[in-house]
Amino acid sequence: MNCFQESRRIVIKIGSSTLTHKSGHINIRRMEQIVKVLSDIRNSGKELILVSSGAIAVGVGKLGLRERPSDTASKQAAAAVGQCELMYLYDKMFAEYNHSVSQVLMTRDIIENAHRKQNAINAFRRLIDFGTIPIVNENDTVAIEEIEFGDNDTLSAVVAKLTEADVLVIMSDIDGLYSGNPRTDSTAQLIPSVEAINQEIESIAEGAGSSRGTGGMITKIHAAQIATEAGIDMAIINGEHPEQLYRLFDGESVGTHFVAQHP
């Protein structure tokens, strides 16, 4: 058995590129697959916390905008519209498998204030005790630069620490960390395991994310650093195939495993 197979409390981060079509509209088939697999994993006795991107992307589609806006007010408006749609779909889909969801919207100042941080920890603990699946996102409608996490990869690692998760899984639009950029380098090889994050790992992770998200591989490496330093194992897997989660939690090698650091 490995750490993913043995894990009980799991944080799973789902990126915008996994949840949406290029049009910005929800990829319904993909989302239904993800919810079905996650519901089954929850039925097996594991505790789940989702960190879900997609609010701005869904809002862009819902509002009929041609592209993701660049000004803050428009992004906040798109997030406000998109977050409603996103939670409606999660609530509807998880309910089909008799699971209740809860919404948690966060900004960075919550973890920078000891009292507010403890309140967040208590809230997560009680939501999990009640058997709900917390669905977390940055509070993009009110977030400004000073209180932004900046990307949901970082947020997912912070949530994993707050909730004392056993493992963090980031579902992306790529199979994992490669030795080069697989989109431009045909010789790039998937790296199955990373024991330590150093300058070499950071240098090969540089690159842009998709047009529907905010991060790239480098933000996932930063998330891995936060998680592994907190003693939490992390994996990056391809979100196009949600059934890979079964393989991961059955103990198979999937994607890239960032090994937790233990003193």
Mean pLDDT: 88
What order do the helices and strands follow? HEHHEHHEHHEHEEHHEHE
Estimate the global geometry from the Cα principal axes. globular
N-to-C span: 22 Å
Structural class: alpha/beta
Strand order of the largest sheet: 3-4-2-1-5-7-8-6
Task: Name the beta content range.
Answer: 15-25%
Q: What gyration radius follows from the Cα positions, in whole Å?
A: 17 Å
- Poorly predicted residue ranges: 207-214
Q: Give me the count of strands.
A: 8
In quaternary terms, these chains amount to single chain
Helix share bin: 40-55%
Count of DSSP-assigned helices: 11
Major sheet: size, sense and barrel closure? 8 strands, mixed
Provide the descriptors you would attach to this structure in a database record.
8 strands, single chain, 11 helices, 263 residues, 8-stranded mixed sheet
Structural write-up:
By secondary structure, this protein is an alpha/beta fold. 43% of the residues lie in helices and 16% in strands. It has an 8-stranded mixed beta sheet with strand order 3-4-2-1-5-7-8-6, sandwiched between helices. It is globular and about 40 Å long.
Please write out the topology.
Layout: H1 3-6, E1 9-14, H2 16-19, H3 28-43, E2 47-52, H4 55-62, H5 72-95, E3 101-106, H6 109-112, H7 114-129, E4 133-138, H8 152-162, E5 167-172, E6 193-194, H9 199-204, H10 217-229, E7 233-238, H11 244-249, E8 256-258
Helix pairs in contact: 4-5, 8-10
Summarize the model shown.
The protein is of the alpha/beta class and 263 residues long.
